[in-house]
Design goal:
6-stranded mixed sheet
Length: about 180
């Protein structure tokens, strides 16, 4: 007999969420294995200093001793700044971790940041719209003074999933923007 596959529980929408600034860079991650192996990746593949993505792997390996403080696991973030996407008027590249609930209130390696939290509370579309409006009026929180922020990321805690909303061209898929 075919194995039964149950339909999963559906999380409620009006539960806690975290809205952070969506930084326009390139997705990057560091994985530290149980046996201390140090790996770097883009959103879609493993990378190395010899086969890199905007210099992230080279940078990560140069800061390996500091980054090992993140501990075992995969640590996802945005590699952004000078020469990557919008650039944010930065003079260097930066790595900002995504998992705000884990990283916002702990001491990080000096080479890392955390994406800025704009709102934390019950999800409403008004909260999303308010965060977008503040970015439009005041500019980027990650790069103060930069007036073309990309948008927001909404992490819906109960569903354990992310959604993005951009200020420009939100209605069209990224593949159609080119």
């Amino acid at each position: 007999m075919k194995e039964f596959v149950p339909f999963g529980k559906i999380p409620r929408l009006s539960r806690n969420c975290v809205i952070s600034e969506k930084i326009d860079g390139t997705n990057a991650s560091i994985t530290i294995t149980e046996d201390g192996e140090f790996l770097t990746a883009s959103r879609t593949r493993w990378i190395t200093p010899a086969d890199d993505n905007y210099g992230f792997s080279r940078w990560a390996h140069e800061h390996k001793d500091e980054l090992m403080q993140l501990g075992e696991g995969s640590h996802f973030g945005e590699w952004w700044g000078l020469g990557i996407q919008r650039g944010y008027d930065q003079k260097e590249k930066r790595f900002s971790l995504f998992n705000t609930s884990r990283w916002c209130n702990v001491e990080l390696p000096e080479c890392c940041d955390v994406v800025p939290v704009l709102y934390s509370g019950i999800f409403t579309s008004t909260a999303v719209d308010d965060c977008l409006e503040q970015l439009l009026l005041k500019g980027s929180v990650a790069a103060p003074g930069f007036m073309r922020p990309e948008g927001v990321i909404v992490y819906q805690v109960a569903g354990r999933c992310y959604f993005k909303k951009t200020i420009e061209k939100d209605e069209s898929p990224k593949s159609k923007e080119m």
